[in-house]
Amino acid sequence: MKISIGCDHGALELKNVMVAHLTKKGYEVKDFGTYTPDSCDYPEFAEAAAKAVASGECDKGIVLCTTGIGVSITANKVKGIRCALLSDVMSARLTREHNDTNMMAIGAGVVGQMLALQIADTWLETPFSNEPRHQRRIDKLMAVEG
Fold first, then answer.
1. Which of 41, 74, 109, 113 pairs as cysteine with 46 (C-beta 3.0–4.6 A)?
2. Which member of 21, 40, 98, 134 is catalytic?
3. Annotated catalytic, 40?
4. Active site includes 21?
């Protein structure tokens, strides 16, 4: 599975830990930056990571910033993306089972590294339930895009 990842300066350390963790687990990771601790604007990195998922270049994506809010909003602006802002393992599991999310966001200033890795593992390893009620709801949700 190929994972896109992007962050701003506020989540650079967590992104680097996440990339190493995912690579060790056998995932192919495409890193859209940022690569330095210099102040930068999160939308450019979140958009690039989301477009890679939307185009099919990557299977799923992870975006990170200090709160996770800005990158999740940005990712969700890209047509075809369903990005969930996550801070707990249960939500990571349920958003995959019920919403078939293709991206997740984490706030590096909100979630510690160990929990962030557990959230990512749970999210990546949990399949969509394929239950008709959940698919019906996803179809309605995606119809809002127009």
1. 74
2. 98
3. no
4. no
Domain range for residue 109? 2-143
Neighbouring residues of 49: CB distance < 8 A, sequence distance ≥ 6: 4, 5, 6, 32, 58, 61, 62, 63, 75, 103
**Using an 8 Å Cβ cutoff, are 37 and 12 in contact?**
yes
Q: What is the pLDDT of residues 125-145, one digit of tens each?
A: 999 999 999 999 999 999 998
| Beta carbons of 100 and 82 less than 8 angstroms apart | yes
- Domain of 118, CATH number, reads 3.40.1400.10
Q: Structural domain tally of the chain?
A: 1
Catalytic residue among 7, 9, 58, 65: 65
Which sign, positive or negative, has the C-alpha torsion 22, 24, 26, 29? positive
Residue linked to tokens 């593992």:
121
Closest C-alpha to 22, from 114, 120, 98: 120
Whether the per-residue pLDDT at 19 is higher than 80: the answer is yes
Contact, 80 vs 58, CB < 8 A? no
30 membership: H or E segment, kind and range: strand 28-31
